[in-house]
Write a structure and sequence with these properties.
Layout lengths: L7 E3 L18 E5 L1 H4 L9 H10 L26 H8 L9 H6 L7 H7 L27 E5 L2 H4 L1 H5 L5 H26 L4 E5 L18 H11 L8 H7 L2 H33 L5 E4 L25 H14 L21 H19 L1 E3 H8 L10 H7 L14 H5 L7 E7 L11 E7 L2 E3 L4 H5 L10 E6 L18 E9 L2 H6 L3 E11 L2 E6 L2 E4 L2 E5 L5
Parallel strand pairs: 2-3, 3-4, 4-5
Antiparallel strand pairs: 1-6, 7-10, 7-12, 8-9, 8-11, 11-15, 12-13, 12-14
């Protein structure tokens, strides 16, 4: 029997959008993480968390003490609590009488980890702007008064210098990103859910602060960018690399490689953060764990046409800079002797007001879609091959078409969990070329066709420069794709799962190459991941000349 009415459900099973569960009034929200979560260089009402809260509540002010994030914070330190001298000095009202809580949080300080921020909530910093205690290891019981938790974390566990190092390699970056943005983030999410069992958790992706290509960062002619990269990350820039540049012409190349590495981190971090979010959301029977991808494009990176980041060497908003400078000065003295060069320009390459607005829009759009009411009939109709619900078992069947190898969608987990996978935030392709002699494919173009999205897998400087698209004998090539990056999709109108109508790998050979020697490519294995979950695993198979291989996803 066909369904004749539209069924509206609140898939979050908590409360209607904008209606908190704590007191029937304004939601309780806390923010944990690093300098991006804190809003480095921005005054309180310009931070992305504050702007999201304003959108969510229709104008309510987010209390300053709600933002527990701290510049420099890592997810979890390998060395325990860290530098106690720094903690003591930050907490000592006599030492820093003229400084404020804002100045403290602006100071890049890693030892106050995100795990410790979560443990101390809501008793971390008071409105009097002083820590009440130094017992950062004391764990509190579950807190059911918090409705929303925002998290941005992971990049400091790797280090900006390691990401931007032009002499690094993608394999090392990928391994470090997997450890911080997936393994550590998943443990953090698990602990945050235990701490705040009724809260919707939203993890924000990182922004693209350097970019490549004609619309990206103006690396060649922008001297300020070169100087800034040298100061911030110690890169081979014009001032420091004059000798090497004269000998090898390596200066501009090193900056291009640094930007390519940043793009690679940006894509890999989105995949790994989304994977952690997806798996933890599936494991949780309570409120949702969500991912919000900021809609940055290459033109929004530093030294590009429309930058959404503070420029290199920036001190941020003058009101914030003066407060941070007081703490930087105090911390540069013995026994701390923290870096007095980078601290004053800590806002460099962080989201500026426009960037914070973009992240706030992304968080709001994701929260609104996940917690609002949705029509099951419309969703299933979009997912369906024939455009509608046709029988009592068709809801399960239509959902299962998109499950894939590892169960991206599992009806047994409930509609809330299934519907949280409808927005495609991350696409990853891993191709292993056979190690047989002559198996490689190094003279043709390879593309991935998903129906609504087609992407060449060897079309960026970074991939070509790092041998990530040469498909040579025995090579493993790894590609990550952000559906929002330089496409027509936006945070308000993202790529949805039902728009992926097919999966096809295509080989396109030039007429000249095909005439001389038709390319025979032996693929050992092909894997496709959506939102961090593997949906296709196939191989081995061969492609010859202008050939293609189709895969049964979504399942027909």
């Amino acid at each position: 029997m066909a369904v004749k009415s539209t069924v509206m459900v609140n898939v979050n099973n908590k409360h209607e959008f904008g209606k908190p569960i704590t007191d029937g009034g304004t939601p309780t929200m806390v923010v944990v993480g690093d300098s991006v979560a804190w809003g480095q260089g921005l005054v309180h009402d310009k931070k992305f968390a504050t702007r999201f809260f304003d959108r969510l509540t229709g104008g309510a002010a987010l209390p300053r003490a709600a933002i527990k994030a701290h510049s420099g914070a890592v997810i979890r330190s390998r060395n325990g609590t860290g530098n106690r001298d720094v903690a003591l000095k930050l907490a000592n009202a006599n030492e820093l009488q003229s400084t404020t809580r804002q100045g403290h949080h602006e100071f890049p300080y890693g030892p106050l980890t995100v795990h410790e921020q979560v443990e101390r909530l809501p008793n971390d910093y008071t409105d009097q702007e002083r820590p009440e205690r130094l017992d950062v290891s004391k764990a509190y019981g579950p807190d059911e008064t918090v409705d929303i938790v925002l998290i941005t974390a992971g990049i400091n566990d790797i280090g900006g210098g390691n990401i931007s190092n032009p002499f690094g390699d993608p394999e090392s970056i990928e391994k470090a990103v997997r450890d911080s943005c997936y393994s550590r983030m998943k443990r953090l999410l698990r602990r945050t859910q235990q701490r705040f069992p009724d809260a919707t958790i939203i993890v924000t992706g990182y922004h693209l602060f350097l970019s490549t290509g004609p619309d990206g960062s103006d690396i060649v002619s922008n001297d300020d960018l070169a100087v800034g990269l040298q100061v911030l990350f110690g890169l081979l820039s014009r001032p420091a690399g004059a000798v090497l540049g004269a000998l090898y012409g390596a200066v501009e190349l090193s900056e291009e490689l640094a930007a390519a590495h940043v793009e690679y981190f940006y894509q890999q971090s989105a995949h790994n953060l989304r994977k952690a979010v997806t798996e933890q959301d599936k494991a949780n029977t309570g409120a949702s764990v969500l991912f919000a991808s900021p809609n940055y494009n290459r033109r929004n990176a530093a030294a590009a046409d429309d930058p959404w980041v503070w420029p290199p060497l920036s001190r941020g908003d003058p009101a914030v800079a003066s407060e941070r400078s007081a703490v930087c000065q105090a911390m540069s003295e013995p026994p701390i002797e923290e870096d007095s060069v980078k601290c004053p320009i800590a806002p460099s390459l962080h989201p500026n007001e426009a960037g914070a607005d973009a992240i706030a829009r992304a968080v709001h759009a994701r929260y609104e879609e996940a917690t609002g009411r949705r029509s099951v009939r419309n969703v299933i109709g979009n997912l369906s091959e024939n455009g509608g619900i046709s029988g009592p078992t068709s809801v399960r069947e239509e959902l299962e078409r998109f499950a894939g190898v590892d169960g991206l969608i599992d009806p047994a987990e409930g509609l809330r969990t299934c519907f949280n996978q409808l927005v495609v935030d991350s696409i990853r392709v891993v191709i292993k070329t056979s190690d047989d002699r002559g198996a490689g494919n190094q003279s043709t173009t390879v593309s991935l066709d998903l129906g609504a999205l087609t992407r060449n897998l060897d079309d960026t400087f970074g991939q070509q420069g790092f041998n990530h698209a040469n498909f040579s004998q025995g090579a493993k090539d790894d590609f990550t794709i952000d559906p929002l990056l330089d496409t027509g999709w936006t945070e308000r109108d993202p790529l949805h799962l039902w728009e992926i109508s097919k999966v096809e790998l295509e080989q396109d050979q030039s007429e000249y190459t095909e005439f001389i020697d038709s390319q025979w490519w032996k693929v050992e294995s092909f894997a496709l991941y959506l939102n961090g979950i593997r949906v296709v695993q196939a191989g081995p198979f061969d492609l010859d000349g202008d050939d293609s291989q189709s895969f049964n996803y979504p399942k027909s």
